[in-house]
Amino acid sequence: MTRISVKVDGVRYSDDVEPRTLLVHYLRETLGKVGTVVGCDTSNCGACTVHVDGRSVKSCNMLAVQADGREVTTIEGIATDGGLHPMQQAFHECHALQCGYCTPGMIMQAIDLVGENPDASEEEIREGMEGNLCRCTGYQNIVRAVQQAAGVMAGQAASSSQAGE
Amino acid sequence: MTAVDDRPTTEVGTARVRKEDQRLITGRTKWTDNIQLPGMLHLAMVRSPFAHANIGAIDTTAAQDAEGVVAVFTGKDLADDQGVNINAWPITPDQLTPTHLPVAVERVACAGEIVAVVVARSAAAARDAAELVDVEWAELPAVLDLKEAAADAVLAHPDLGTNKSALWRLDSAEQGSGGDVDEAIAKARESGIVIEREYRQQRLIPAFMEPRSTVVDPTGEQLVVWSSTQVPHILRFALAATTGVPESKIRVIAPDVGGGFGGKLQTTPEEFATFAVARRLGKPCKYTETRSETMISCHHGRDQWQKLTLSAEKDGTVTGLKVELLADLGAYVAIVGGGVPVLGAWMFNSIYKFPAYQFNCQTVLTNKTWVDAYRGAGRPEATFAIERMMDELAAEVGADPIAIREKNWITHEEFPFTTVAGMTYDSGNYEAATAKALELFGYDELREEQRRRRESGDPVQLGIGVSTFTEMCGLAPSRVLGSLSYGAGGWESASIRMLATGTVEVVSGATPHGQGHETAWSQIVADRLGVPFENVEVLHGDTQVAPKGLDTYGSRSLVVGGEAIVRAADKVIEKARPIAAHLLEASVDDIEFESGRFTVKGTDQGMGLTDLALAAFTCHNFPEGVEPNLDADATYDPVAFSFPHGTHLCAMEVDTETGATTMRKYVCVDDIGTIINPLIVEGQVHGGLVQGIAQALWEEAVFDDQGTLVSGSFVDYTLPTSADTISFVTDHTSSPSTTNTLGTKGVGEAGTIASTPAVVNAVVDAIRHLGIDDIQMPCTPERVWRAIQSAGESSGGSVPEQAQEHFAAGGLNQDPGAGSPEPPTASTTAGENA
Ligand code: FES
Ligand code: FES
Prior knowledge:
The structure holds two protein chains of two kinds. By secondary structure, chain A is of the alpha+beta class. Chain A has five helices and five strands, in the order ββαβββαααα. Chain B starts with 20 loop residues before the first helix and ends in a 45-residue tail after the last helix. Helices cover 28% and strands 22% of the residues of chain B. In chain B, α12 crosses α13 and α17 packs parallel to α18. Classes of the chains: A alpha+beta, B alpha+beta. Chains A and B meet through α2, α3, α4 and α5 of A and α1 and α20 of B. The structure holds FE2/S2 (inorganic) cluster (2 copies).
């Protein structure tokens, strides 16, 4: 057992974990963060995507011990002040989910993608989301949602940087 | 309290965003694997690595001794009460149906079969200990190839004496719905056109995103089963019918279910094993499969050889169609089993006026994963075959593929139309859908571009694929199902409960797993009862809440389940009418109902339906002899199947130097009658299209010659990604159904059914001038390239079946060049060659 300290969705945790425990299993089984899900055993599907120190990571592809001292954000931690994150809102408005199983990972990946490339084209979005599989939507509305959220997030960034000046 | 506010005049037809999204986008979900109960134990399965083997001694001592292990059960240990996995549709009275035990006892008939169950305090401990179970295997010869299996040289189940399970036939002359097909073909051989082809429907894996999971809690008076299933009601029935536990002691719940596509239309060995173990131990038990287990042990789909003979006059007027199918059942006859290919029997003739028709289906057992419903189930296979054949006929006649279809299809004046297969299509307008699709597609311009590229010898050729499909869904009048020996009815059930405070509960026996029922049912009920959309709560997926139901598959939820809801709503109104008359002191005959309000004819007196619900709750002033509640149930047995149709057009670019294919444009115009929610419909169409396109271009379940599934993970089973696909143009025409109140038709499978032939027709059309008339699916760049290389020699571009490489370094999913020196590296990325 190894002791790790990790901040998840704003809360600090300290736990003993088996060194082989994957981050996704730590999140789901130890912390009860079951909003993050597992879709495969080969790191292909992206259903388990979370942010570690602000960048997207497939949490089945990382050991819990590797998260020691770092900050993890899951789908459960991105809505603020009772309001949805613009990406969540856009997924809802654009009907970018059906069964919703891929959705937590999609949203986390999409936030990272837009953060890196606020003006991503359809093709760039399609390539940036390639590591996240969805069997229901055919991706078209996911791409639309990412485009819509990118617009909203750019607007928010602009107004908050103005506010900060 | 009246119900009128600023909601849209009608909910039906409004693109409402979905109610169910809120929890799904915030991670507030209840997937079965999320469930934790006090004292819960975890299961791991010991599975056969062999396709066919006798089970010798099983040594469980090491596993039993491992830390955290509570118990290990072999098939023998569970034999008395584990139940059996049933086939619900014996397609013929003499069908051979090998017994399918959840945990095998003496012999396994395919890789992945369960032979022992390890129970431990954690899933990890159970999995570790499963590795320690030592099974003595005595390998038996396995039959893996479908055609070889049909020859009976090696037997999948030696005790049966043959691999042939059942032969099912529909003959239009015999049943009196048309002429004699052999005569038609003989005549065409003399003086007309005969087209003979053999097509392969490769084996697919449903690959829903949520791996299956089951939790069984035996600690109460009822055994409570949560399962990631499309069919909680059928699971409850099957558990009760085969384990001896009374049905009234079983409650099955399908909580949030992460996709199904037919893949969760099954009662699975894993569910039965978990049920048996939980009963033995008296502790809550959970089993969640890994993705690799899903791939091998969840039923597969398709897998047919299709031999087709089409006869026509010289001018392209069709005269007959003969279909001979070999359908792989896999190792067992699954719950629908041979019924899946048989569902195609009424669909090969499609929208065309064949005077003579015959359908033959031989189902065959092999030592591979069992095969059952996958999105479309029998109709995609049929649609693929006929739409490919119509293109072949067009090529033979030298006509445009649209013109050849137009010459042969049922015109809109001819509805209702009884087909040569004996089905009566209620409504449709193939001309209208096609005209709209041609325009959106820019058909003439693309044909012109195709001509230019041909003439200039462009290495990248353009092909245009047409698919004017119809399908039958919404299973179906129960008496029809009965006449086909289907083991259940086709009805669906609904209840509406009018709550005292003005909200409404709608209970449906259909069980969604991504379809958006909560939203669509709310829209229907909001209109029907005149209550706000937000005030309707839809409940489903729990046999205690929704005790009667036949669940969700075959695009039946709206056309059957939706109609049950409409009827329950109408009953509520009729129940409320005499109460309204009493409270308004008027005669029942003078009471009118509109937009949620009862009024007295010719006066301004009235009262809202929800006020009546409160009046029923208090019951202070009620008419004599009237029961004090407005709630109503309805069970609806459909009077007919539902026949959506549409025209799909696909433009593919084919690089003749590399075999790479690129989708340039895809347009579909579907006629699904009345649309309840355009947003949900669009989503269904998009997702359906990608699944159908994936069959055409990418997906295949490949076994090696040992019977091991080579494409057994997402590394090798090449699901399309966002980078592999394009944005589609989707639109609609509408011929409302005449067989249900709202005029709706099913849409859940349409995209999948229509798109596969559209894509393959386009690929073939791009290179037909090189002498190619077929590419076997999936049309990988390698197959296309080989077909081009050997053009004129043979058709099909057949290559030994092998898994595609996936996620090659620096490449996209479907990078054909990975790992092989030839053909030249190419990619199937949308837009790359454009
Ligand atoms: S579960 Fe992590 S990538 Fe599939
Ligand atoms: S919404 Fe079902 S997998 Fe994406």
